[in-house]
Amino acid sequence: MIPSAVRGIVTTAALATALTLLPPSVAGAAAGGDIEKVDLLGVTVVSTKPHRVEPGDSWKTRLKLYTEKGKKYAGNGTSRCDTVRVTASKLVVQCTRVLRLKKGSLVLSDQVTHKGRATVTAKTAIVGGTGSYHSAYGQGTLTLAGPLLHFKLRVDE
């Protein structure tokens, strides 16, 4: 008779092998991989960002969120950014963002490198949420262009 510990290892190995051999769409569904695309346009309403940013500065920003298609109101958001590094040519900030939508809230974390006033695109991580997004994770991109923020997120639940 096979000991229970060995049976558990054999079962786990067999399941892992089966998921590896399945086509990606079936393997994703078997692993519970529902992905929702969330594309939003954020418009800055209020920002406490100082005119001249120094190392150690932090600020908050309030946003109104709209759907990328149709430009319909989708909710609101806030950002809190902390200065990581300031040089003559660039500014590096670490930000935590909360997007409050009808289905729940998404929490994002990102590090953005600004070079002057140019438009910048950075990766952002989905680190949590509430409501329908209570077990959300994933990643996306964030594009900052003046007072506008474009969010293109792939939310995995």
**How large is the radius of gyration?**
21 Å
Q: What structural class do the secondary elements suggest?
A: alpha+beta
Shape category:
globular
- Helix content bin: 10-25%
Q: Summarize the biggest pleated sheet.
A: 8 strands, antiparallel, barrel
The largest sheet has its strands arranged as: 1-2-3-4-5-6-7-8
The separation of the N and C termini measures: 40 Å
Offer a quick outline of the entry.
The chain is an alpha+beta fold and 157 residues long. The protein has helices at residues 4-21, 24-30, and strands at 35-47, 58-67, 73-86, 91-101, 104-114, 120-129, 137-145, 148-156.
What's the layout of helices and strands?
Blueprint: H1 4-21, H2 24-30, E1 35-47, E2 58-67, E3 73-86, E4 91-101, E5 104-114, E6 120-129, E7 137-145, E8 148-156
Antiparallel strand pairs: 1-2, 1-8, 2-3, 3-4, 4-5, 5-6, 6-7, 7-8
Salient structural properties:
eight-stranded antiparallel β-barrel; alpha+beta; single chain; 55% strand; 157 residues
Could you explain how this protein is built, in words?
There is one protein chain. The chain has helices at residues 4-21, 24-30; strands spanning 35-47, 58-67, 73-86, 91-101, 104-114, 120-129, 137-145, 148-156. The protein is globular. By secondary structure, the protein is an alpha+beta fold. An 8-stranded antiparallel beta barrel has the order 1-2-3-4-5-6-7-8. A hairpin with a 2-residue loop joins strand 4 (91-101) and strand 5.
